[in-house]
Design brief:
globular, 298 residues
């Protein structure tokens, strides 16, 4: 392994623990959005701003390689529909009518699906240690979500909001696999910028329909602040980190970062919302962190 490749691997392993913290900001955005900004409007604003910010770093590359855009245009549209439309607006819609424990339980299935289909479809090597890591991390996240009371699993009830989240989980799995499977002439940041543009194209008509027929948005500093927060932190920064990690470590190993979500959301809830940190959070962390380490090993 050369020095440059070793540096990329070290960066990817560091991002495994940073990216989920960035994504966790979306929990706060989703919690504060109802009554301020509609789901599609929030998702559209998020990616318009994120694409603009990302373009500042890669516009020269995109201009120099513009001859490749037409060949990858369909990929950008499909990835944009999966990652920016469904995994954006659908989560915000589902979050209006389902509990956080249900969202967490449904999203906990995504790394398992990604690991399974990465081994079957992408032929990624995924050995016994990696499988043990996924299982250990999954047990840890379930322990956190049921607050250490495993009998609560039987109390989970599905509602319409859960169906929106379930669709988002399936589409995030597809986004992760296709991002790895489809080669690109562009760097991760430039590719993400173009995928975001594809997502904007898909989101625009649904946002207009939503504003006209269903749920208008408030034009205020509050809605602008939510859009900006969602665009910069769980948008440009988190998705950019995910693209870099996938290129270096592969889809299956990177998918386990989703298991850190409940822990980071608990920390954010404690720091921002005054929620308590409980012993089950610590026990969950003792399972999740080693699980991520095992699953990301080569």
């Amino acid at each position: 392994m050369g020095a440059s490749q070793a540096r990329d691997v070290r960066l990817a392993h560091a991002l495994l623990f940073i990216a989920p913290a960035l994504w966790s900001v979306n929990y706060l955005v989703a919690r504060w959005a109802p009554g301020v900004i509609a789901p599609h409007a929030l998702a559209l604003g998020r990616w318009v701003v994120a694409a603009g910010v990302l373009a500042l770093f890669c516009h020269r590359e995109i201009a120099a390689k513009r001859q490749f855009i037409r060949g990858e245009a369909l990929h950008f549209l499909i990835l944009g529909a999966l990652g920016m439309w469904v995994c954006g607006a659908f989560v915000y819609i589902g979050g209006r009518s389902t509990a956080a424990v249900n969202i967490g339980l449904l999203y906990a299935a995504s790394p398992v699906l990604i690991a399974l289909f990465s081994a079957i479809w992408l032929r990624e090597r995924f050995g016994v240690l990696q499988g043990l890591g996924v299982a250990l991390a999954l047990a840890g996240v379930l322990h956190v979500l049921v607050r250490g009371q495993w009998g609560r699993l039987a109390e989970v009830r599905l509602n319409p909001g859960d169906l929106w989240i379930a669709v988002a989980v399936v589409c995030w799995t597809a986004y992760s696999l296709l991002l790895r499977a489809w080669p690109s002439a562009f760097s991760p940041v430039a590719r993400l910028t173009l995928v975001a543009c594809g997502g904007i194209v898909v989101l625009l008509p649904f946002t207009l329909w939503e504003a006209w027929f269903w749920l208008p948005s408030e034009l205020s500093w509050r809605s602008a602040g939510l859009v900006l927060a969602a665009a910069l932190i769980p948008g440009a920064a988190a998705y950019g980190a995910y693209s870099i990690m996938q290129r270096t470590l592969g889809a299956a190993r990177v998918s386990v970062v989703l298991y850190l979500g409940p822990l980071y959301s608990a920390l954010i809830g404690w720091a921002v919302l005054g929620e308590r940190i409980e012993p089950f959070h610590a026990l969950g962390a003792l399972m999740i962190l080693p699980g991520i380490w095992l699953s990301s090993r080569h």
